[in-house]
């Protein structure tokens, strides 16, 4: 016993110290980091120090400058930013030029709404009351406003880029370049004007691209109509009615032919009786329908009894001619007296309907091509507003979507309406107005897919040569390109880049003159595309020697998908960036949008794809998997997330999600991400606290590190390889969840827990503590740089907390080079078994804790039974250190009954088990281990163990 007074040893322990706070307080702190990066010129410094590096170019697909950002924008830009930052930190020069799509219908529609609104700033005077130049100026101002709003919102998300040098499709240089790209197709012969059905919006009065169309359920009228056969090879067919079924009754006035399948079996069906209440069909009528569809047809039109007089192959219908079912309609004044020929069509099936298809050449792709192949004229029965023209006698002025009653009544009068009703089915709608669209043949400008330029063939080869993430995107875009028609690039609107070409009125030939194109280019670069609309423009561009009265100046604008598809020409090539770009990255809907148009435009103008790789992500849904909408109240706005949680939390959500699939977000999911963030932040804080005062001289060479430290470095080498593989192939799914799991499981719950004793209580120069701090240094450098792409604000804070600097930044660092010697597969295999056995020990300790036998694992000294072959895995003191106990006894004997067996270990480790035993001795006042030596150390420090006594005695007073 001793008379020495009790001492407080807390001042002798190396407790963690760091200015890095536990709470991130991101919403308040993040804006300050943005200001700092701006102040130190971070982006320009990165470009300067990367001047001699290999370029990495992720070409930005331009978002639309129309409204505040939504969560899909945030997902897209964050994913791009992570990839750019990671490429930069991997040794590339990641020069990122953000851009905006500024032309087109959505903006024009919004500005038109302002003109239409009687209470708006224009007083309801209408768009047509002002010049096209004044209207275009309104559109430009609208786009410029939202471009600026979105730019600041993207910057708030921590997205790094050349914001000062951003591109916009409405910049004068951009408009000139887009017109120039059109000129290339003009000069190589692929641009032509032709008549063909296109998707047409009667509301917006313009053609639409496939990417501007979305499908919704729609209630459509249907009808069955009979076309009386006037002439046929077989006499028994004359007088019978060839029956068609359609979901577009409004196209009946535009009918000019019927189609049949040559190998389909058709039947002549005689009506014997009709069901009660049926008035449209009559006993004695003879119908021609596909044999396979007789049952469905009879049920739909109400046949109570019928007989089949003959079955024949479709080939017998060759050369047959029918009458239009409205031929005898009193309301048409003889307007439907033309013959309706029956034509063989490969597209005819027996999937539904009657096996016969009515052809309205102006309103269907198959209809158009088959009738044109037989020299049948294409009538213009429907105007640009969706109402019938004079070429639809009896219906002129009626809107097609309100025409079914009138068509039904007209067919009923002639006796050729066999059935009518409604059907709900998926139908194309304009994505802007949300109104249904129609197919309508109008003169439009097209780019040929299969002429001498061979765009389709070249595009399909380019798809085969492109790296897709995920790979399923290859088949999706490939099937679209393989099946698509010629590209309709004209729109009948005002806000956009004009298709700046001239057509000679006399010959109808388009003018191909490079000098004219050069004059247009110079004017557009100086004045913008508005130059096309200024007085005297035709004479100015045609030049001397041509009379502008002899030429039509085309006033259609180009499809906005052509505009955005040609951005590679003025964003990459004109700025000296490599072409093709390393990566295009957008949502999966862009297989038919930007990826598609960019591919066709680039292949057509320069012969190769504008990208080496394509990465696609899914859409964002609410927590229940529903599409977000204001009416449902389930919208998660990125602005609100950054305000409540901070941008780093939103960015972490992106990178913790499987971005190849649809993502979900909401209050609970964001709360989970905040918890994940807290764990990562605590890991960084623990590292910083235990690296306080660390100097390079403390480092130990790899060969002198204990196995536990070498195992941690091996895990770092595995994560480094995973990260670099993602940088190379652009597949980031799972990378940051692995890093989080490493922080939470391998570090916080294992390595940190074990090494706390050494870091806090060993002597400052002890090899074990130096080894741990050597690894902590590597961990800090790796984790802060690895996390910098996804958590740029937090990583910057964690870097500067250790390396304070007025102008330093983690974003000026590269990912640390991981030495090859860190990789040790044999060590990793051994420690997998060690950790499996350790779980048996910790399981026993937990049972003892629950039973009240101990309060802390340091009160235990368990017995670990190992098979003979495992006795050399680790010495007993190493097992005690690993299990955070004050002692541990190894036993080669079989485990007694009640011992807890290790599970999931290798076969040679079978039999490993642990049983509880209390630690003998007293608790050390400094390290809290329970040891027999406590009390026997010295009269000066009777409450300490030998280790702690030596440390205290050697420390300066």
From TrEMBL:
Q: Which UniProt keywords apply?
A: Aminoacyl-tRNA synthetase, ATP-binding, Cytoplasm, Ligase, Metal-binding, Nucleotide-binding, Protein biosynthesis, Zinc
Which residue range or ranges hold the Aminoacyl-tRNA synthetase class Ia domain? 33-665
User: Which reaction equation describes what this protein catalyses?
Assistant: tRNA(Ile) + L-isoleucine + ATP = L-isoleucyl-tRNA(Ile) + AMP + diphosphate
Q: Where does ATP bind?
A: 630
Domain called Zinc finger FPG/IleRS-type: residue spans: 921-950
Cofactor detail note: Binds 1 zinc ion per subunit.
Motif 'KMSKS' region, residue numbers:
627-631
What GO biological process terms are annotated to this protein in UniProt? isoleucyl-tRNA aminoacylation
State the HAMAP family in the record.
Ile_tRNA_synth_type1
Q: What does this protein do?
A: Catalyzes the attachment of isoleucine to tRNA(Ile). As IleRS can inadvertently accommodate and process structurally similar amino acids such as valine, to avoid such errors it has two additional distinct tRNA(Ile)-dependent editing activities. One activity is designated as 'pretransfer' editing and involves the hydrolysis of activated Val-AMP. The other activity is designated 'posttransfer' editing and involves deacylation of mischarged Val-tRNA(Ile).
What's this protein's family per the entry? Answer: Belongs to the class-I aminoacyl-tRNA synthetase family. IleS type 1 subfamily.
Q: What is this protein called?
A: Isoleucine--tRNA ligase
Name of the encoding gene: ileS
